Amino acid sequence: MKRNALLIGAFVLAGLALIVAGVLWLNGNSLFKKQLEAMIYYQGNASGLYVGAPVTFRGVSVGQVEEIGIQVDRDSLKSLVPVRVSLQPDALRFNGSKDTPIDLPNLVLRGLRARLVAQSFVTGQKSVELDFAPNTPSTLTGDGSRLEIPALGDRFGALIDQVADLPLRDTVQEVRDTVKELRSTLVTVQHVLDATQKLIGGAAVELAQSGRDARLTLGVASEAVKQVQLTSGATLASITQLSEATRNTVTAAQPELQRTLVSAREATESARLAMNRVAELTAPGAPLRGDLDAAIRDLSQAARGLRDWSELLEEKPNAIIFGNKRE
Q1: Is residue 29 scored above 50 in pLDDT?
Q2: How do 112-118 and 151-152 pair as beta strands?
Q3: What range does the domain containing 298 cover?
Q4: Are the CB atoms for 95 and 130 separated by under 8 Å?
Q5: Of the residues 107, 136, 155, which one is the last residue of a structural domain?
Q6: Is residue 140 included in any domain, yes or no?
Q7: Are the C-beta atoms of 33 and 88 separated by less than 8 Å?
Q8: Rounded to whole angstroms, how far apart are CA atoms 127 and 154?
């Protein structure tokens, strides 16, 4: 009986030893290391931050959140969210030395600030990010009993405040009115499109009919062109034959034409000489001209005598027998 109790006690002690060893291994012997604690006071909403959330410096984990609380002023009812964080001194080194202690107040004076950042947009969890922002104001809210790291607002906090100040109701109403106008405009445009489509349909029918008429006209024109081509071919062939026959005729008649031209030149020369001769004969003062004038006068007298004689015969037909005696 005593032996069993001894075995049970030894087993329990071994189990406790294993548990302590596991805890020490999981915490990386942090239980025996000195932790640097600091306070961060957030004036806004700290939703998404939880106990155990990591504290990072430019993406490297340097601690975790140990406690989250809430402080409300009785008079102004303003609230603060105090967050206690524990920092690992070994996680942050200066000049490569592990023995250099972290002077947190000096780092705060040089611009060390804390900001809430989102770990996941799906779960909404947040963590604390430490970084240097020397151009930001160092506003300490605590009573000074604990080290404090000034808090910076969320990157989107100012944007959210500006959005909250916007007249969203009026904007939504204006958007609704705009949507109504767009709907009415779309309805009008739809009516216009339907009317245009009908006009296009009618025009398409007319264009189709015009296309058929044009095709028929082109067919008739093609036939006419073919007939003209055939007629033109025959005409060109006839003209070619005629020109060939004319050329042959001209070639054959060329000697005769040359002789005719020579004869015509000779006849022209003879006529010219004859005309010159006639001109010489009929020139004023020429003997032949005088003879001709005398002959013409005689002819004129003879013509008058014949005219008188014819008048006498008309009056007295028996004048040929009884003589030329007028009463």
Answers
A1: no
A2: parallel
A3: 283-317
A4: no
A5: 155
A6: yes
A7: yes
A8: 12
Number of residues that make up the chain: 327
pLDDT in tens, 251-308: 877 787 788 888 888 888 888 887 777 777 666 666 666 777 777 888 888 888 778 7
* 264 within some domain: no
Distances (CA, A) of 79 to 15, 41, 128, 129, 144: 47, 10, 19, 22, 18
Using 50, 70 and 90 to split pLDDT, how confident is the model at 39?
Answer: very high
Residue 172 lies in a domain: no
DSSP string, 110-130: TTEEEEEEES-TTT--EEEEE
In percent, the amount of the chain with pLDDT more than 70 equals: 79
pLDDT of residue 240: 85
In a domain, 312, yes or no: yes
Q: How would you label 15-33 residue by residue, b for 16+ Cβ within 10 Å and e otherwise?
A: eeeeeeeeeeeeeeeeeee
Single out the residue in 116, 137, 155 at which a domain terminates.
Answer: 155
CB atoms within 10 A of CB 112: 20
Q: How far is CA 223 from the centre of its chain?
A: 46
pLDDT in tens, 166-184: 676 778 888 888 998 888 8
Report how far apart, in Å, the C-alpha atoms of 95 and of each of 71, 92, 99, 100 are.
39, 10, 10, 9
With a CB cutoff of 8 Å and minimum separation 6, the contacts of 151 are 40, 41, 42, 43, 113, 114, 115
Q: Residue 110 above 50 pLDDT?
A: yes
- What is the domain count for the chain? 2
Determine the 3-state secondary structure of 20 from DSSP. Answer: helix
